[in-house]
Amino acid sequence: MDYRKLAERLLPGNYPAPESYETLYPPRNLPPKTEVTRLAPSPTGFIHLGNLFSAIADERLAHRSGGVVYLRIEDTDLKRKVDGAVEAVISALKYFDVKFDEGAEIGGDETYAPWYQRQRAEIYRTFAKKLIEEGRAYPCFCTEEELSALREEQTKNKEITGYYGKYAKCRNLSEEEIYKNLDAGKPFVIRLRSLGDPENKFKFHDEIKGDVTVTENDQDVVILKSDGIPTYHFAHAIDDHFMRTTLVIRGEDWLASLPIHIELFRALGFALPRYGHHCSLMKQDGETRRKLSKRKDPELSLEFYRKEGYFPRAVKVYMLTLLNSNFEEWYLKHPDADLNEFPFKADKMSKSGALFDLDKLNDISKNELARLDERGMFAFLKTWADEFGTDAQKAYFAQEDKLLRALALCMGVGGKKRRKDFQTASQAVSLLRYFFERPETYEECRVPDQIRRAVLVDFDKTYDASDDAQTWFGKVKEIAARHGFAAEMKDYKADPAAYCGSVAEVAEILRIAVTGKANTPDLYTIMQILGEDETRARIGLGTK
Ligand code: GLU
After folding, report:
1. Across all residues in the chain, what is the average pLDDT?
2. How sure is the predictor about 80, in pLDDT bands with cuts at 50, 70 and 90?
């Protein structure tokens, strides 16, 4: 068969000489052992935890070696393209301090641009044409119906499904048949002519999983679809070669396609990059573990963490905990270190499913937030509120002094032990509500209504905002005694039947009236922050 003629018929026109791309995209001028990694998302508009998981690994492995991490957009599947999706990827990752050196909408060294696959059509066609000329690729005219009938037959016979061996009908079409189909205007795809034998198995070193056994590929996979657009298999091989990627980190779902990729790189005459396939993020669901799902688990979307106002460092610490088995121990020893100092290694990445547990993340978040001072917290909460807060919440930040005092109190700044009340920005800002707005609802008080009101009226009479904490508490004790409560806890404990409660219940009455809540930090300080008028107004409302 005259393959040159066939190639010209299938992909007519002048294409650059394939070798010319080697000079156009020269090997990077980097010292040995420097890694070039990439994140290669599809611009679907849905950016998820798995992307962050890969991106942190990509960024760390590249930068720890002094190398480069770039962003490539795999947009060959037009159906899934969403406007603004690339910006969404960049900004979602930036929130977690993952920054790229080069790539789509980032710029950087333009040598390896463009980074959108749809802008690279010519290079894919050049190499498809080369493979056709060499007899390593051929046109396939099978229709969707024929292919699904084939799949059904193979499934019925319990055989491996796909287009291979005796099932690869178009692989052996004669020259005459091919041209007849082409003359009839039949649509076609271009397939690789596989030379592999599935009887042959070989060892492959995966940077994460270690040595894995790979079966030779015999699938005649599609490399160019009928619209001339490449498949992932083909495009990634060309791009990772010409963007000079040294290490491909991707999800373990791709491990099954590795034999195809190895054959494609060989057929194209390219050296294979190193690969590391990381495990999927799993979730415990009752008795079983399953992959996080877009439909069931809102926490899969990175948008969730921004809307809730997760502290970026906390999410990163948790991701690193899941990514590298020795991170947790290192972090215990270096709690204040820059996370980038952690010696991140691919071979320390977990080999089988990483269990993602939101409760664990929430614990880490509380700890991380407890390390901020009130000014750091103010800045973090303000950034969140500016974007996601209600108008009322945004207004809290205009009263800077008051908010700083409230934060210092709620965080226990300067106290013996820091409080860990704050978990996320949205939750923290809601907790701060009573400093700025009167309670809308009141938690239940254990004391009967009549006594409760009498206590509030009494408090209002004796309250003096200029009292110090000790005097204030002395007065609360007196009120307790006047209304049948034990002023001292030990008295109450010695003879509970003699009292209608203790000073603790009196404090609860005041606390609920002022804040709406039965549990808060120090009530005296809350009243100081609210000021006399507001405190009296709330006490007054409680008596109604
Ligand atoms: N576009 C592929 C994906 O989003 C990229 C896989 C890879 O990193 O090679 O799954």
Report:
1. 96
2. low
Residue 28 has pLDDT above 90, yes or no: yes
Q: Give domain 449-542's CATH number out of 3.40.50.1980, 1.10.10.350, 3.30.110.70, 3.40.50.720.
A: 1.10.10.350
Q: SS in 3 state form for 121-168?
A: HHHHHHHHHHHHHCCCEEEECCCHHHHHHHHHHHHHCCCCCCCEHHHC
Q: Quick check: pTM over 0.90?
A: yes
Domain covering 1-279 assigned CATH 3.60.15.10 in the classification: no
- The yes-or-no answer on residue 294 being catalytic is yes
Which of 117, 233, 254 best tests ligand 1's pocket when mutated (most atoms within 8 Å of CB)?
254
449-542 and 1-279 share a CATH fold: no
Alpha-carbon span 418 to 193, nearest angstrom: 66
48 CA distance to ligand 1 middle (Å): 13
Give the number of the atom of ligand 1 that is nearest the alpha carbon of residue 74: 1
Which residues does a 6 A CB cutoff place in the pocket of ligand 1? 40-42, 74, 236, 248, 250
- For atom 10 of ligand 1, the residue with the nearest CA is 41
- Note whether 203 and 211 are within 8 A (CB): yes
What's the rounded mean pLDDT across residues 450-477? 97
